[in-house]
């Protein structure tokens, strides 16, 4: 899953930079539909072993997140979504719960769509109970550190460090966040602002 994310970080910013937001949006939409059709047609093959983690049957979830970010960067679409998204939210939650209980390898397209709707709705409606719960200080801090935690979680599995794993693990992701992730973010924002300020930054928000 980490290699899939790294592929995404290389492909999507490059696509935005050289093709622009409109073409990138079209590419993401076509990719979502194509991957969903392909996964459905080859379900029995990719549900065996570790094949379910391969890019060609998982990337649609990432592209759905891109489409959500682009849609919410448009003021008209954002206002429309804010008006109607809470209705979609109450449909998305049971769909997500059903899929989470029934699909343990390959993820169907409607599960990724449900997740995108839930994320979009909670960000648009901070007054919702779930939104307020997600703003809990400890959850927010975990969210900020989540990528670094994800990268270094393998330390938990190393039997050699035994009782020292909490120190090694926490030290790893904190140092990674401070000295790798944050500097890389600042560099990325500078490059984006210099190369194509309005379009790239609006899509990244």
Write a structural description.
With 205 residues, this protein is an all-alpha fold. Helix content is 80%, strand content 0%. It contains nine helices and no strands.
Radius of gyration: 19 Å
The chain-level structural class is mainly alpha
Total number of helices? 9
Total number of strands: 0
Outline the low-pLDDT stretches: none
What best-fitting shape do the alpha-carbon axes yield? Answer: globular
Report the sheet with the most strands, covering strand number, pairing sense and barrel closure: none
Q: Name the beta content range.
A: under 5%
What series of H and E elements makes up the topology? Answer: HHHHHHHHH
The overall average pLDDT, rounded, is 88
Ends apart, CA distance between termini: 24 Å
- Assign a percent range to the helix content: over 70%
